[in-house]
Amino acid sequence: SFFQALQITTKITKGCIEILNDVNLISIGDKVGQSEATLLNMLNISPFSYGLQIERVYDSGSVFEPMILDINDDDLRQRFISGIRNIAAVSLAIGYPTSASAPHSIINGFKKLLAIAVETDIDFEEANQTKEYLKDPSKFAVATSAAPAAAAKGAAPAKVEEKKEESEESDDDMGFGLFD
Questions:
Q1: What pTM was computed for the model?
Q2: Bigger pLDDT: 25 or 85?
Q3: SS3 label, residue 167
Q4: Cβ atoms of 23 and 8 closer than 8 Å
Q5: Which residues contact 96 (CB under 8 A, 6 or more apart)?
Q6: Does residue 150 contact residue 159 with C-beta atoms inside 8 Å?
C-alpha cells in the first residue's frame, strides 16, 4: 500500500518486492516529501549531498564570478608565457633591450653578421660552415642519413637537397623563434 500511495507498480518475486517500471522520485531542486524520504530510506538510497554553491566571490571590494577559482597551474603558466612573449615583441619593436628580448636580439644580430660575412670576404669560424654550404650544397646532402638510401634510388637526390635547405633555414635561428 505504501508503493500504491506513490503510484509505483510492484510485484512480489521470491519474497522480494520488485518495482516494475523505472520511477523518478526526485528531481534536482524539488523538495523531498515525507513519503519519498521514507521510501528512499527503505531502499537504502541516499541521493543527497550537501555543500555550498558559490555564486559570487568578494575580495577587497571587488566581486568576481566563481569561475575565477577554476584556474590551474597550466592556465597560470600559459598566461605568464604569453606575457613574456608580448614583452619580448614590444621590446624588439621599439629597440629597448630586456631580458626577454635579449636572446632574440643576439640571434638577430648573429644572422646579420652571417649575411655580411657571406656577402663580403670577412671570415670567422661560425660563418665558415654557412659559406661552405653555399659553395657546394651537395657536400652537406651526402652527410645526411637519408642520402645513402636516396643514392640507391637515383631520382631522389634533388629531394634530399631540398630537405637540407629547409633544415638549414631553420638552423639560421638556432632554435630561437621570435615568440618562443
A1: 0.40
A2: 85
A3: helix
A4: yes
A5: none
A6: yes
